[in-house]
Amino acid sequence: MKSKGQILAFEQVMLFGLGVAILIVSFSLFMLYQNYYISETTQDQLTQVKEYVLSNIIRLCEKNEFNSSLVLSVPERIGNNFYRISLSNTGLNLTLEPEGGAADFSKLYGLNETFDFNGMVISDSGKIVIYKTGNSIIIQ
């Protein structure tokens, strides 16, 4: 027959093990939620920067001047990563660096029929310049 002290020690060890298991499960659950919200926030920030750049490209296209430019301040990092802004006749693309990260793309609402778009810039300087020269829109 087991003594009362052995049963009490066994209960305490089981209670401690249960506490550790609850701690590990809680930590894992919170890490899953944190990763989900970080990815959603990163995607939302990419979309906001893309819409900001795109609206200024449209604004520049509407200007009647033959040569003009805009200097835009953009965040240097999104989600602790630099990002690349690429402009081509197919559209505007933002991609987190290094490759394989989140990305966001937008078409140019038919402006590519009138204008020629090109250029690429990395966000490390915190600003981008958009030039309009004739029917060419260049991003640097």
Summary, kept brief:
The protein has 140 residues and is of the alpha+beta class. The chain is 42% helix and 29% strand. It has a 7-stranded mixed beta sheet, with helices on one face.
Secondary structure blueprint with pairings:
Elements: H1 4-62, E1 67-73, E2 83-88, E3 91-96, E4 103-106, E5 116-122, E6 127-133, E7 136-139
Parallel strand pairs: 5-7
Antiparallel strand pairs: 1-6, 2-3, 2-5, 3-4, 6-7
How would you characterize the overall build of this protein?
By secondary structure, this protein is α+β, with helices and mostly antiparallel strands. It has one domain (about 5-140). It is about 40% helix and about 30% strand. It has a 7-stranded mixed sheet, with helices on one face. A hairpin with a 2-residue loop joins β2 and β3. The longest helix has about 60 residues, at about 5-60. The radius of gyration is 26 Å and the shape is rod-shaped. The protein starts with a helix and ends with a strand.
User: Over the alpha carbons, how many angstroms does the gyration radius reach?
Assistant: 26 Å
**Domain module count:** 1
The neighbouring-strand order within the major sheet is 1-6-7-5-2-3-4
What is the oligomer described by this structure?
Answer: single chain
Tally the helices: 1
Percent of residues in β-strands: 25-35%
Could you describe the largest sheet, including whether it forms a barrel? 7 strands, mixed
Compute the average pLDDT: 91
Separation, N- and C-terminal Cα atoms: 83 Å
Number of strands: 7
Secondary-structure element order, N to C: HEEEEEEE
Helix content percent band: 40-55%
Overall 3D shape: rod-shaped
Low-confidence stretches: none
